[in-house]
Design brief:
The protein is mainly alpha-helical. 50% of the residues lie in helices and 11% in strands. A hairpin with a 2-residue loop joins strand 1 and strand 2. The longest helix is centred in the C-terminal third of the chain and has 23 residues. The protein is elongated.
């Protein structure tokens, strides 16, 4: 048992090379920039919306296209699949996400400066937890009063998502 713990400690104390350290420093910069740029952009086109509906989500606010009118239209459409209205008051993340990204940036920098696998593991666990929890909670929190039945799903992180009918 002692040898297993010693090997684990040796692995966690292993130094990181300069390339991973540079990537960690770049990740810290991206985490800080995420507080000023949209972290999610939604654009929907349909025949009844030839100019499209646009929504930018920042770490601290929702910003709809067409001077905010697009958020009202998106909320109208969301009603049909059982999603709650998009309202800034309901996004508790807006209160803590800028702070959390700042802490994450500091953890990235700590891992880059100290350059050990243990600090990299700390950052990876925290980043994964917050990222997966946020996606899961958004995609699976639907109301029972939906007009169209759709299957609960996790939003796509990359690519073009499709709404699948419930079976």
């Amino acid at each position: 048992m002692a040898s297993v713990l010693e090997r684990e400690q040796q692995l966690l104390d292993r130094p990181l090379g300069w390339n991973p350290r540079g990537l960690l420093a770049a990740a810290a910069l991206v985490a800080l920039l995420a507080n000023f740029l949209p972290i999610w952009n939604l654009t929907m086109f349909a025949p009844q919306y030839p100019d499209g509906l646009r929504l930018d989500i920042y770490t601290f606010k929702l910003q709809g296209g067409n001077r905010g009118q697009d958020v009202k239209e998106i909320n109208l459409l969301n009603h049909y699949i059982g999603m709650k209205d998009l309202a800034e008051e309901d996004f508790t993340q807006f209160r803590w996400l800028p702070f959390a990204l700042g802490v994450l940036a500091l953890l990235f920098l700590r891992a880059a400066v100290h350059g050990r696998v243990a600090q990299l593991l700390d950052v990876a666990v925290i980043f994964t937890y917050f990222g997966l929890f946020s996606l899961w909670s958004f995609g699976y929190t639907l109301t029972a009063a939906m007009v169209l039945a759709v299957r609960r799903r996790r939003p796509a992180r990359v690519g073009v998502p499709a709404i699948e009918p419930a079976r």
